[in-house]
Amino acid sequence: MQTMNVSLTPELIKIVQSKVESGLYGNASEVVREAIRQMDGLDALAYEAKLERLRKLLEPGLADVAAGRFADYSLDKLKRKLDAKRDAGENRENA
After folding, report:
1. Cβ contact 21:31 at 8 Å
2. Does 2 map to a domain?
3. Does 4 map to a domain?
4. For every one of its 95 residues, what pLDDT tens digit does the chain have, with 9 covering 90 and above?
5. Burial class (CB in 10 A: 0-12, 13-18, 19+), 31
6. Structural domain for 87, as ranges
7. CB within 8 Å of 17: residues ≥ 6 apart
8. Which pTM was predicted?
C-alpha cells in the first residue's frame, strides 16, 4: 500500500481522532479510507441521478422522433436557407 501525506484542519483532525477513539476504526488511515470510499459512492450516486434526470428530459424529444414529429435539419440546409434570406433581402434593396 502506498503512503500519502495529507494536511487536515484542526476540526477534521478532531473528527478523525474521535472516530479512532470510538473504537469503530483502528487508526486514522482507516477513517480516511472509509471517508474516501463513501465520498466515491456518493459521487457515483450523484452521477447516476444526474444521468437519470437527463434521460427524463430527453424522453419527450425521443417520443416526438419515434412518432415522426421532427424537422430534418443539417448545416448545409441551414446555410442555404440563410443565403436565400440574404439574397432576398439584397434583391429588395436593389429594387
Report:
1. no
2. no
3. no
4. 899 999 999 999 999 999 999 999 999 999 999 999 999 999 999 999 999 999 999 999 999 999 999 888 899 999 999 999 999 887 777 76
5. buried
6. 10-94
7. 28
8. 0.62
* C-alpha–C-alpha distance, residues 34 and 24, integer Å: 11
Q: How many domains does the chain have?
A: 1
**Distance from C-alpha of 72 to C-alpha of 20, rounded to nearest angstrom:** 63
Q: Which residues contact 34 (CB under 8 A, 6 or more apart)?
A: 25
Q: Residue 54: inside a domain, yes or no? A: yes
> For residues 11 and 27, is the Cβ–Cβ distance under 8 A?
no
Task: Give a yes or no: residue 1 inside a domain.
Answer: no
| Amino acid 89: pLDDT | 82
